[in-house]
Amino acid sequence: MQNVKTLQARDALKPVLAVHVEADDSWDCYLHGDELPPVAAPIPIAACSSWQLRRYLNQSGLRNAVDAYMASADQDTQDGWATASVFLSTDPFVAAAAGALGLDPYAIIGAASEMVG
């Protein structure tokens, strides 16, 4: 791995991977044969329909807490809750609501996604 300070130096090396180092605005350039840095595991994403989420909240006893949170939320959040057809565990709206209630967004949306009939 070589660290370079300019885009021209980076491009001249023809790295297989170039990682920008924000601290000093340089580039870590990985060349053929270099050991590559570890890659973070992707964040798991769960998805459920509006109906699945509401049904899960009803059955788990969380619906009143969510409704109270939504009643005090800003208009964008209320509109999203009222009109979204799909909820993703990675959506900032879902993460904020779950966090405010002390819940894990992936666990909630994942459990809701298993709701059927």
Explain what this protein looks like in three dimensions.
By secondary structure, the chain is α+β, with helices and mostly antiparallel strands. The protein has two domains: 1-38, no CATH class; 47-113, no CATH class. The chain contains six helices and five strands, in the order E-H-E-E-E-H-H-H-E-H-H. The strands form two sheets. A three-stranded antiparallel sheet has the order 1-3-2, covered by helices on one side. Helix 2 packs across helix 6 (105-113). The model has no long low-confidence stretch (mean pLDDT 95).
Beta content comes to 15-25%
Total domain units: 2
N-to-C order of helices and strands? EHEEEHHHEHH
- Summarize the main sheet: 3 strands, antiparallel
Helix-strand blueprint:
Layout: E1 2-4, H1 7-13, E2 17-21, E3 26-30, E4 47-49, H2 50-60, H3 63-72, H4 75-83, E5 86-88, H5 92-100, H6 105-113
Antiparallel strand pairs: 1-3, 2-3, 4-5
Notable characteristics:
elongated; 117 residues; single chain; two-stranded antiparallel sheet; 2 domains; 6 helices; 47% helix; alpha+beta; 3-stranded antiparallel β-sheet
Quick overview:
The protein has 117 residues and is α+β, with helices and mostly antiparallel strands. It contains 6 helices and 5 strands, in the order E-H-E-E-E-H-H-H-E-H-H.
